[in-house]
Amino acid sequence: MTEKFSLIRDGVDMLNYPAHIRGNVARAATAWQDFTTLDQRTKEQFAATSLQSGTGYEKKGSGERESHDIKENFDITRASLSDLATTSHTNPIASHFISAASELFDDLERLIAAKGKRIEKEYAVVGFAKEATTSASSAFVRFLYYPPVPTGTVIGEPHVDHSGVTLHLYESTDGCERLTLDTRKWQPMPVSTEQAALFPSMQTQLFSNGRVKGLCHRILANDTTARVGRSSIVCFIPLVNMPTYDRKTHGRLQEMEPGFNYNISTVQFRNYFK
């Protein structure tokens, strides 16, 4: 029997999603893993700074010791697909990756709209269904690769995501943990082949006036990551009609005390936005 989670009690919900979406996610995951084997010069052709859309490839950290965000990531939006396809057309591996990624967006937009309706109904967040539907086309998919590092290394610092909702669609091995809302203890938050994890972020906490909290989470390297690294696919849904987190004033969310937003007043919380 599948364990039942609640966004208000647990900060996360596990979603069964259709087989055809799982198939598309699996194909995209394989294509991403192939892309990461390309030489660095080829990958840098897709660097985020070279694309007007602001999406693309980025490498962070050295992978040699615990540091800020040891990873490679590639952000893709629907709007960026044309530019990415043009850039990738001379490289079969890169072209296949962009093509596989493009297959995700129609299904994800429908899934986001459906889950927005569910959040409004189950958690009494008035207006959230409309906001999710409006925002679905602005979602972006992030493909991540964490290189091998010693077991127990923090490869994803504790943080709440900036956006409205996060869908954790795929991971090649466990390692994602959530900070519980009540006891503030770290608990595993694994993703299976049949389920995706959905959790709220900063904008949803603002939208719901604190009824639904943004979930603090982190990534640790396990034994598998130590041997072969770790890949994952995440979808972020910014709420397009809501204020955004003011990073210029308040800094990186990774630098905040884990769980800083759990017991804060609505008035105080609004000060983090612009």
Trace the largest sheet across and list its strands: 1-9-6-11-4-3-2
Find the count of extended strands (DSSP E, 2+ residues).
11
Query: What name does the CATH topology carry?
Result: Jelly Rolls
The overall pLDDT, averaged over residues, is: 93
Main pleated-sheet profile? 7 strands, antiparallel
Total number of domains = 1
The H/E string reads EHHEEHHHHEEEEEEHEHEHH
Measured by DSSP, the beta-strand proportion falls in 15-25%
Question: What is the rounded Rg?
Answer: 18 Å
Question: Tell me, what's the shape?
Answer: globular
Q: Please name the CATH architecture.
A: Sandwich
What's the end-to-end separation, in Å? Answer: 43 Å
Reading off the top of the CATH hierarchy, the class is best stated as Mainly Beta
Measured as a percent range, the helix fraction is 25-40%
The assigned structural class equals alpha+beta
Q: Helical segment tally?
A: 10
